[in-house]
Specification:
The chain is mainly alpha-helical and about 250 residues long. It is about 65% helix and about 0% strand. Helix 1 runs parallel beside helix 6.
Amino acid sequence: MASSAEFRLFGVQHLAALLVLAASAALIARAGLRGTDAVRRRLGIGLACLLLAYPPALYYQEARNGWLHLANSLPLQLCDLVLVACLAALLRPNALVSEIAYFWGLGGTLQAVLTPDIAQGFPSWRFLQFYWGHGAVLLGIVHMIAAQGFRPRPRSALRMFLALNIYGLTVLGLDLAFGWNYGYLLRKPEGSSLFDYLGPWPWYLFAIEGIALANFWLLGLPWQIKDRIHTRRSLPKRPGAGCGIREDAS
C-alpha cells in the first residue's frame, strides 16, 4: 500500500494511532476487570491469535519486497522477545514470562510506540505492521494485568534489569561481529527518538541503562505502594487511637 503522507512524530496520524491504542486498552481493561471468565478467556485467546499472526505476515511482506536479510530480519530486537513472552503469558501464564512481558514491554515497547522508527504514515504497510505488532503487545499486557491478576514478584525489577543486560551483551556481541544494529546498540534510530537526547555512542548505552533501571523501579512501585497500604490497614489499631480518646497514664 502506498503511503498517504510521510510519518511525523506526534503528527495527526501518530496521535490518532495512540488514541486508538489507548481506547482499546481501556476497553480490554474494563472487560478484564468486569467481564465473566468466558469473556476473559476469549479475549486472551483473541489477543494471542493477533500476536501469533504477526510474524508470518511480517516475514511474508519482507520476503515479497526483498527486505528479508540477516541484518534486519532475525528476531533479535527487544520487541521480538517481548512479543514471544507476551504470547506465552496469554496462553500459559507463569511468573517469569509475565514479568518479561510487563517490564520489558512497558519499558521498551511503550517507548517504541511513542517514538516509532518509521518513515511512512498510514496506510503504508510499515505503519500498519508497526502498530499491529507493538500495539498487540501492549494490549496483551493490559489483559495480563486486568484479567489474569498479574503482579510482579519481590525483586523482579532487579531480575529483569539483569536479564536485560544479558540480552544486551549477547546482541551487542552479534552486532559487533556481523555489523548489525539489533537493539540499536551500535547506531541510533534514523527517526526522532529518545536516543537523540542521550549523547553519542557508546555513551547513550550507559544512559539507557540508567533509564531502564529507573523505569523498572517505577513499574514495580504501584504494587509496593499497594502492599504498604494493605499492611497498614491490616495492623491492629491501638485502643482509643484515632477516635479522640486520650490515654491517661495510670
